[in-house]
Write a structure and sequence with these properties.
heterodimer; A: 122 residues; mainly beta; 4-stranded antiparallel sheet; 10 strands; 0% helix; B: 107 residues; 6-stranded mixed sheet
């Protein structure tokens, strides 16, 4: 069974930093790209970042470029999102989501983590 | 950035009836479109990818069509569990943008 278990959310003051984690199981993590998506309270989905299976390719939404860093540890089947210089606008539920296998073309995410709430507030 | 526009914002339909949701891309995305639905407090669930291919375990009452810039999701006979917010997402170009969502509610 594919599972993505997230951790690392919480309350952080404006200007602060937070690191989100996503631990995968039930599939060969190292062959899949991964994404982060967020959802502000009462709002729609916003794609944030992508990392290829081998970390060679990383993409970011303009809203987080230069502040957030996506990374992965294939040996530990783990995905990370380092978030710096946080503002009120970053308050949201953050989801990790599995991308596509390296052997197939791009696909939208079929498997998602449970989501973790990040609140940026003083 | 490719802008995805969904319509209508809210759709009221009775159980057992058909629902048709639309998604328009600001430029051609070929068939690189997915549809999700999301219930309160839950993660999104993938329904359709490649504009028309049902994801694993998705019932046949869900069907997708379109290519280029115009796409449609049709739910042929609404069940109680189908009332949710629906999102389209393009994965043709970075960033992989979502539409703003259609709230499918019980009439």
């Amino acid at each position: 069974e594919v599972q993505l278990v997230q951790s690392g959310g919480g309350l952080v003051p404006p200007g602060g930093s937070l690191r989100l984690s996503c631990t995968a199981s039930g599939f060969t993590f190292r062959t899949y790209s991964m994404n982060w998506v967020r959802q502000a309270p009462g709002k729609g989905l916003e794609w944030l970042s992508y990392i290829g299976s081998t970390t060679n390719f990383k993409y970011y939404a303009d809203s987080v470029k230069g502040r957030f860093t996506i990374s992965r540890d294939n040996a530990k089947s783990s995905l990370f999102l380092q978030m710096n210089s946080l503002t009120d606008d970053d308050t949201a539920v953050y989801y990790c989501a599995r991308g596509s296998d390296v052997t197939v073309g791009a696909r939208p995410s079929e498997y998602w983590g449970q989501g973790t709430l990040v609140i940026v507030s003083s | 950035e490719i802008v995805m526009t969904q319509s209508p914002a809210t759709l009221s339909v009775s159980p057992g009836e058909r629902a048709t949701l639309s998604c328009r891309a600001s430029q051609s995305i070929s068939s690189n479109l997915g549809w999700f639905h999301q219930k309160p407090g839950q993660a999104p669930r993938l329904l359709i990818y490649g504009a028309s291919t049902r994801a694993t375990g998705i019932p046949a009452r869900f069907s997708g069509s379109g290519s280029g810039t115009e796409f449609t999701l049709t739910i042929s006979s609404l069940q109680s569990e189908d009332f949710a917010v629906y999102y389209c997402q393009q994965y043709h170009n970075w960033p992989y943008t979502f539409g703003q969502g259609t709230n499918l509610e019980i009439k």
